[in-house]
Amino acid sequence: MTLLFSLYHQSIARFIVALLFICTSFQLVKAQVKPLDSVMSLLNRNEIPELREIVAMHDVEALEKSDQALYFLATGGIKYAVDDFENAYKDLQKAKNNSSNKRVTFMANDYMMELSNSTTELHVAPESLMRENLSIATQLNDPTLLIKSKFYFMFKEIQLGNYSQAQDICYEMKKISLDNDLKQELIDTEFNLGTLHYYQSRNDSALFYYEKNLADVVAKKDTFDIAVRLNNLAMLQTAIGEHQAAVDNLIKAAELIKDKNDKELSVGLLRNIADAQTAAGNYVEAIDYYNQFISEEDSLQRSNIAQNLKELQTKYETAEKDLENAELTAKNLNSENKIYLLLFILACITGIGAYLFNRMQQKQKLLAAQAETQKQREEKLLRDQELAGIDAMITGQEKERKKSLKIYMMI
């Protein structure tokens, strides 16, 4: 009996262990399937390989609409990272169309604005996307998103040459960063302030911001940010005549990003190195860098991409406008139907009134005609009577004349 009891408990124990093993295995398998909810954080960290894994694990057709938005946001970000700009733009539009989440919409818009700014030199993002993102950031009361949305308005003013207005926006961004202890946003904003001082030929202020900013990003060991800061510092050094220092910083920046797969920045650096070499009097080196720049620039096909993106944006905005008009039409349909019904009733009343009025007019005309006929009959009767009297008088006179003539002849 004791043995049976022991065996029974051993069986129960084995069953529980097996059940726990199955549950644990299930949880491990489940944990291996990365959820789409992580897409936005991965995009913020630019973790493209992880995004590819997530996309490969999902069939977009089987997903709910909200998950489809995240799926297309991921594919749009992946295509953007490899410079497949046109298809990236299309996927980002799909993400926006399927999204009911304001943050997903904001990120899709942000990528589309980046695409607009990247495809042609001095190109400004579509105004509609800028305003939509500013509205979303304000509604969510998110300081990070507010700074991001204000950046594009600042950038637009820079492209238009309105440096004072751009600087005002930049100081707003700096205040938001300080008020909310946003360290990275503050670093980026101060870098933009340095650039604005450079554009306004305030070289001392620009140098202060650039050197401080470079120290901040070097401490963070962010090679991309270091390369961007070195590029702008070199532009300032060229402006103040430190040509060889500018060349050295630009070459250092190009070396930092050579394995980063950022063709846009690498091509821009080639052009800047060529210009700096020319300013430094290194003409042979300048020619070599110019040739490299021309070769790489042609491969980007910026003008064609920009035109295609512009057409895509126009089609998208037209479709959105048509949708808004359709919704407005549907919303006002009941009111319009009521108006049409009232107009129909009014038309019927007017028609009936006109018909009755016309009948009354016809009746009055008929009575008038009958009265006129009766009057004419009476007048004719009177005339006939008068004529008969005259005729009788004439006949009587004729008889008297003949009678007198007869008497006269007898005499």
Automatic annotation (TrEMBL):
SUPFAM superfamilies: TPR-like
Gene3D superfamilies in alphabetical order: Tetratricopeptide repeat domain (1.25.40.10)
A Pfam short name: DUF4807
Record bears the keyword Transmembrane: yes
Record InterPro entries: DUF4807 (IPR032072), TPR-like_helical_dom_sf (IPR011990), TPR_rpt (IPR019734)
TM stretches of this protein: 339-357
Keywords on record: Coiled coil, Membrane, Transmembrane, Transmembrane helix
SMART domains per UniProt: TPR
Coiled-coil portions: 302-388
Name this polypeptide is given: MalT-like TPR region domain-containing protein
Gene source species: Nonlabens arenilitoris
